[in-house]
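Input/output pair, single chain:
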Amino acid sequence: MLQQVLSYQIADSIDIKTFKSEFKSDLYFSDTDELFYIVDEGQYIYVFKYGVVCFLNYDAIRISEFLRLISAYCKNKFEQSLEEEFKIQTNSVKNKIGFNSIEIIGSDIEVLRLIMLNVSQSVALDYYHEQTTKLMEETNYHTQILETKGRLDLSGINLKKYIGRTLVLKNRITENLYIFDSPPETWEDENLNKIHNDLKRTFDLKERFRNIQEGLNIIKDNYELFRDLLQYRNSYRLELVIIILILVEVLNIFAQKIFS
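Output:
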């Protein structure tokens, strides 16, 4: 049987604690970061704290209805969500993974949940890559200004905001993605562990994660340089003000002696 996984990054985060207490459906699995629901026979919903909702065997109308429902629990909901699709062929003669599909023996719910998890991590990586790219573009803009003008066109408050955006993104990635950690269910199940590793390779999760981390490290090196330059500029201005004040005081003393 051919089944469809659709995963959406719809917001920066979802309040799954409140959603769990108010949404009444058959909850198969939950922890502080994830909620996995069995809605109907063969239909599942996976909700993640980091703003992703994943559906298995849902049509467009029901997906839209659920996304409207959960939007009340979203923080910084996107006007345009990111989407990823994946196909599952169940009850196959052997496990076989392709570019955007997988064939599995049987239709074990843990295997289906594992597939939905990997698809959701993939769409989350798309979002984090997009955010990292925007920060890189901002970084390149400031470095080009530094190259052409020999100075930073960046105020202290804007530098702090820029650093803040970088740190928030880096912390979200570290807290929410488990690219290098296998789910506990795979530790004692060889079949699950193999499927999980195959999916990570198919979605290229580790390499994409490393690329994002490398991009953030480059941004970090740049904002540390910007911060040092700004501190030097402020120190220079302070020294100049002190020199002017001293000069004014000397002139004042000199004038008092002359006119006295």
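The longest helix spans residues 205-259. The two ends are 105 Å apart (CA to CA).
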